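Suppose a colleague, Dr. K., hands you the sequence of a protein chain of 428 amino acids and asks what its three-dimensional shape might be. Before reaching for any lab equipment, you can write down a predicted structure in token form. Begin with the sequence itself:
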Amino acid sequence: MLLRLHSRSDGWLCAGVMLLAVLTVPQMLCLPLTADTQHYDIQADCALSGGVLYRDVLEPNLPGVVWVHMVVRGVAGWSSEVMRAFDLLLLLGISILLIHCVQSVSILPSPAGSGAGGEGVHSTATDPLHAGCMLLIIWCCYVSLPEWCHCQRDIWMLLPALGAVALRLHRMQSSSPRWWTMSLIEGLLWGAAFWLKPFVAIPAIAVWICWAWQRRSCSRNTSPSPPLESFELGQNANVGERAGVRGPKYLHAAPLTPTLSPAGNAHDERRTQRGGEGVVNWRIAIGRDAGGLLLGGLIAGAIGVAWLWSTGAWGPFWDVAVNWNPEYFASRQNRWSLERVATLYQWLHPWWWAHLVAVPIAVSRLIRLHRNSVLPSPSGRGAGGEVTGRAAIMAAFYLGWMIQVMCLQHPLLYIHASGVLIALGISG
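The predicted structure, expressed as tokens, is then:
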């Protein structure tokens, strides 16, 4: 009966998603492009026509968004519908990654009570109903935002950033030996997001510090022990003792003697490769991971610098970055006021309410992680503890993102809209 109700709910949800797409996608495609998007088109046209970016046309930011426009316009044409369709495709990819990350860290009570320490936990990673509801909410939020929030790099930046976070979460629950290679790929993703806006370095650093803290704490608090199946009973143990019957005779007749089998050694080796349970030197593990991330970021940076140099834009770019950008960055302080922030969140109403739920959730997850690391307990090292660690990664990403939005950027609507989308995922 429950399966039938669940299938019926999935059917209604699919119908709702299709209806929403039919009603909103044509309208979104027909909306005009904003001045920002048209300006990026002018820059892309200049670069594609043989002009020099930063010299022939002004661009106060890094050229990442111009590269995106060059690819889209060079492949699919210059109509507004093309750019709008590309924006919706990116939104779909962002929604899928956000839902995947959120579901992989969700902790729900399990009726079986199979979690460590008797606390049953399970993930919602395979719950299509939850995923569909989140997709509906994110989509409704985005299509209801003013058109100034569409086709903006702050929201596009979420795609590589969430890709890097999803890769980090996957590595924390994977025993793959290609750890350094995955660190390199994650660094490339963060580097790609950096070319869109350098402020993404704040959530990137927050995610890495949160992971490094877990790695250090678990490596220092976890003592290596042979797997349960490698313990063998003494020769004098009887059948009842082998079945687990414990009594005075069991305690004094034949103690357990740990013998590591090849399978046990392989088990311990796998444990040393896992981000949350490893017992190898934590400094080496953290250093290798940092090296992979930095190398990936440097490769992404070198590719961009090579393009600027080869097109003759490096000199004008450096002049803008050194002589023009500092004053532009400092001007944000004059634009911040309580009245302006209140106006921004009136435009984001009622979606900004998600922050009221997401911020306490994120802070509580980090506090819970700290308590588990300072006062390790069986529940902190079981399945629930692993999920708690991954949940802290998402909390660090969200709070790091909001720090750069509130403290480093200008009070613009599309900048704050990106944080609202993450908050909807955290609170969902």
